[in-house]
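Writing this down once: the sequence line spells out the residues, with the fold written below as integer tokens. I am pasting one below:
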Amino acid sequence: MTDKTLRLTTAQAIIRYLNNQFIEIDGEELRVCGGGFGIFGHGNVTCLGEALYNVQDTLPLYRGQNEQSMGFAAAAYAKQWLRQRFMLCTASAGPGTANLLTSAALAHANRLPMLMLCGDTFQTRLPDPVLQQLEHFGDPTFGVNDAFKAVSRYWDRITHPAQIIQSLPNALATMLDPADCGPAFIGLPQDVQGWAYDYPEEFFAKKVHRIRRQRPCTDEIAAARTIIADAKRPVIIAGGGVQYSRAVKELTALAESCDIPVVETIAGRANMLSDHPLNIGPLGVTGSDSANAVAERADVIIAVGTRLQDFTTGSWTAFAKDAKIVTVNVGRHDAMKHQSTPIVGDAKAALTDLHQALNGVTYDASWTDFAKAERTKWDAYVAENVAAGNRANSYAQAIGVVNDLCDPRDRVVAAAGGLPAEVTANWRTKGLGTVDVEFGFSCMGYEIAGGWGARIAQAQREPDKDTIVFCGDGSYLLMNSDIYSSVLTQKKMILLVLDNGGFAVINKLQNNTGNESFNNLIADTPTVPTPFTVDFEAHAASMGANAETVANPAELGEAFKRAKAADKTSVIVMKVDAYEGWTTEGHTWWEVGTPEVSDSAKVRDAHTDWESSRPKQRKGL
């Protein structure tokens, strides 16, 4: 410890600190902050911009087109790096920062690290009220940035330069903690950003971080071992936490040793290759008949690295009411759900300990034979479902074409709308950890921005592979400007725009609950006198991408080959049917609110039919 100090502005100190934080990954030391996404305004350009200018070689700042999409890109970047690295997002005071709220919520729901450094009103209040300031008459400290308290794992507002000495390490600790992982928000008043302070030199010393692996309690392993060993029909649910823990090998070893069937959540897709004999398929509302048949008959559920969202549990109808649940999760909150027997700890460590505890335990071959037979039937259904030429163009056909032609290490990105269900059900995993279906917050607009962020990360490790984005026309129209970003930054994506004329999956839900089509498809929107089709090809081309429109899956295949061979972002547009071609199998019940009374007989009948499955619902905590 020395008394040496460095006189720096608050903004300069923040960036200097981040520039000296490293993480060890596979024996290599990398900056834990991979850089950032930024849109400058008066609230961050003069001070934070000045600080970032001086480190652009080590903390590259990608110029955003929209603050919300910057946050989506940062989330996808963190996913690609398995939460070991993060990106910062900087936005100006007011609407620029407010635009980050949705992406912060997405990162929070998905337990993803993202650092937000955002402008704030003046600490002195001398120029108040300032441009873009929201005034609350009874609380002058309350502003837009306070909204982030609900969607951040760590929140702070810096009112004195010395505060970052405590705040920054705490923010990093939160983002790198497997149990607490999520977005960190730091509000930076415009005057405080430029105030100088004599910081201890040691604060900026290089530090190498390592992700904590919390060992599970031996008593919890013992309790779980008793339940699992007594089972007749166990099943493992593999969630996204398996990948974040880098526990795929341990998961597979346990399943193979005890001959236990494995089913995957949406976030856990690509924990096992599709041809592994114990991979019984995706589970839940957007799952497979095979996984759901096994889950329904299982007497013990071993849930690993999943928060047991309703699409996984079928709103808690996917399992037998008397089935016992053992939950392995580093987060106590997730491990305790529905009166589970918890194992609170790192998935890799917990699976290793469970494997040792269950040494020699096996189950009647008839159980695994049943699971494998169900998977064989599901594979036959998927093969027929993705086959071209037997019906109108569909999502499943497009997925099948791309699946057949892609490289095993290409990364697939999808989100919201109908495509998450279709990708989850129909994609046949060729490479571990290669699927990003954002359904934690189910956020339209993530697809293209997330593809850009994923590609930035992917290019750092696998530059010769591709990021493939599936996007509906609704999400495209919501947020598409990062096509331009990808071209500008030479971060190639292959984007499939599948146009079904509106928000077709919600139209399907509308119809399935007895309602008439209304305000979802463009053709069914009363305020649209003359519907017309957007020229997505021309629009994408105007942003510098290669773009073409195809008429059918065969043409899509040829266009995809050209996109693979190209050196910049390619956009391929194909119309798909809004009513025909949906994946009709593999769905569990999903609780949605339906009208108990209605003038429509169809709505009343649909309500009765929907509610008929409610008796299967577990009444857990």
In short: The longest strand covers residues 114-120. The chain has a mean pLDDT of 96.
